[in-house]
Amino acid sequence: MTICKILNRLHLSMLLVVSFAALTALAHSARADEPTASGLWEKTEAGKPVVWVLVFERGGTYQGAIAKRFLKPGDDPGAVCTKCADDRRNEPLLGLTFIRGMKRNGLKYEGGDILDPRDGKIYSANMAVNSDGRTLALRGYVGISILGHDEVWNRLPDSVVDILDASILARYLPAAIPATSTASRGKCKYDDRVC
Q: What are phi and psi of 132, to 5 degrees?
């Protein structure tokens, strides 16, 4: 083999390595630009908010906790999950981690489960964020995904995080605890509380 052939093969090998590295970096950059499920989401029924859900990443999986409840007359503000059969039994609904174990795969989150605190049942679950990051589709199911129920939640602006209960912020978002007191701020758009 001549030196020219060796140099050509070496040059080709280097081009392949550099191209592969560039494609890997581009794929990683594209994923980094994708919206994630992390954030605050609003579930509505008949056009009215029912609950806000805080989705966050912990230990490589995504979880979801009840961050705010919109109570109906007669609802107990201190309600606990009396029908839960696992470690969440008798945990307050406010702050309850009811989505667990979701593994991210691009815009999809798979392999997790969702707890219905009304009856204590746990269902397999998947989630998907739409490409603009504004909605989150959640599917809870038994056995196979086609035997399930879908919900679509809407992303809330980051600015409403500071009106969450202090216990939620301390537990799930300690870095988001507002430094200013609520007395120095105006009325919230999403709530009757001061923010």
A: -95, 0
Nearest-Å Rg of the Cα atoms of the chain is 23
Helices H / strands E in the chain, number of each: 2, 8
Q: How far apart are CA 75 and CA 118, in angstroms?
A: 13
pTM to 2 decimal places: 0.75
**Which residues face 125 on adjacent strands?**
112, 140
pLDDT for 68-106, tens place per residue? 999 999 999 999 999 999 999 999 999 999 999 999 999
Residues 6+ apart with CB under 8 A from 128: 107, 108, 109, 136, 137
Proportion of the chain in helix, strand, coil states, percent, rounded to 5:
25, 35, 35
Q: Coil, helix or strand for 85?
A: coil
pLDDT above 80 (res 189): no
Number of C-beta neighbours around residue 123 at 10 A: 17
- Write down how long the chain is: 195
Q: What is the pLDDT of residues 17-30, one digit of tens each?
A: 444 444 444 444 44
The single residue listed with the structure tokens 């998907």 is 128
Q: Which helix (H) or strand (E) holds 18?
A: helix 3-33
